[in-house]
Specification:
It is a single chain. The protein is built from 10 helices and 15 strands. The protein is of the alpha/beta class. It has 2 domains: 2-120 and 288-318, Alpha-Beta Complex (Quinone Oxidoreductase, Chain A, domain 1); 123-263, Rossmann fold. Strands 3, 4, 5, 6, 7, 14 and 15 form a 7-stranded mixed sheet that branches. Helix 3 crosses helix 9. The chain is globular and about 60 Å long.
Length: 319
């Protein structure tokens, strides 16, 4: 099989396409033929050496979709030929095949393409955990998705709309603003507009928003605190450096700043999230948006794209 292999931390160029042995599934394991692999910012952070240590060499990637090729002993409710999406793997997903534990395998509805299936796990689990397990979002609240045109942002918009929240989403381009409106945002604002905070205040009649999902906290957290209603919450999903804030902006609102990384999600919470995702994928209310597709051999270009400004949907690799 072919796989992207990282032997040393560094820039995108350290990812090399190599021929490696195809693994065989052991007890409780499943071998999946990968049809599309998702690319996430965290993949690039790990590859660069800026997200903790990881044994090397390794194959990047957590998200993918494909077809079950072989199963090991003891595997139940999964059969060869099943269409599935992956929530992680044993061997990495930037490859033509991935070895998985059966708990990492989930059914992919026939209404979704494999590329869309590769856009499920990290973005949708992150959005769902932020909204419903960290911030405890409820119907009738005002939500600001700060960076709504990327994979996590579009997932959050779709979920929040279903749950009855009023959604304000920001993007940095006309294309991004069109996307967030199409995915269900009630209001779309350009975060490059110097008056966007005033527009949030105007939309909420000076009250502020109840909840903010923040994708770039090192740039926006200080401003986020001024946009909150009393007892408002910010969930920090992404940050690329330090930030200076004025604690009084939080104090005067009795505000709460929460933070999360999907890797810390307990197994029981993760199972609950997958139940929510399965229902939404099956009934069509959740539908991943694909921004760009790259051949597997161009993983370096995909990493450059996922870390560039102007996110637009999910980036995927096609083996």
């Amino acid at each position: 099989m072919k796989a992207i292999v990282v032997k040393e931390f560094g820039g995108p160029e350290v990812m090399k396409l190599e021929e490696v042995p195809t693994p065989r599934p052991g007890a409780g394991q499943v071998l999946v033929s990968i049809k599309a692999a998702g690319v996430n910012p965290v993949d690039a952070l790990i590859r660069s050496g800026n997200y903790g240590e990881r044994p090397r060499p390794y194959t990047p990637g957590f998200d993918a979709a494909g077809v079950v090729e072989a199963i090991g002993s003891g595997v139940k409710q999964i059969q060869s030929g099943d269409r599935v999406y992956l929530d992680g793997s044993v061997t990495g997903t930037y490859a033509t095949h991935a070895l998985c534990e059966q708990s990492q395998i989930h059914p992919l509805p026939t209404t979704l393409t494999f590329a869309q299936g590769a856009g499920v796990s990290v973005p949708y689990l992150t959005a769902a955990r932020a909204l419903f397990q960290k911030a405890m979002a409820t119907a009738g609240e005002w939500l600001l998705v700060h960076g709504g045109s990327g994979g996590v942002g579009t997932a959050a918009i779709q979920m929040a709309k279903v749950e009855g929240l009023t959604v304000i989403a920001t993007a940095g381009s006309d294309k991004g603003l069109e996307l967030v409106r199409r995915e269900g945002a009630h209001y779309a604002l350009n975060h490059k507009d110097p008056d966007y905070l005033k527009k949030i205040a105007d939309l909420t009649q000076g009250r502020g928003v109840d909840l903010i999902l923040e994708m770039l906290a090192n740039v926006n957290l200080g401003k986020d605190l001024t946009a909150l209603a009393k007892n408002g919450r910010v969930v920090v999903i992404g940050s690329r450096g330090p930030v200076e804030i004025n604690p009084r902006d939080a104090m005067t609102r009795d505000a709460v700043v929460l933070a999360m990384t999907l890797f810390n999600t307990p197994p029981a919470d993760r199972a609950d999230l997958h139940g929510r995702l399965t229902r939404g994928l099956m009934d069509g209310t959740l539908k991943p948006v694909i921004g760009k597709e790259f051949p597997l051999a161009e993983a370096a270009k995909a990493h450059e794209a996922v870390m560039s400004p102007g996110a637009f949907g999910k980036i995927v690799l096609i083996p």
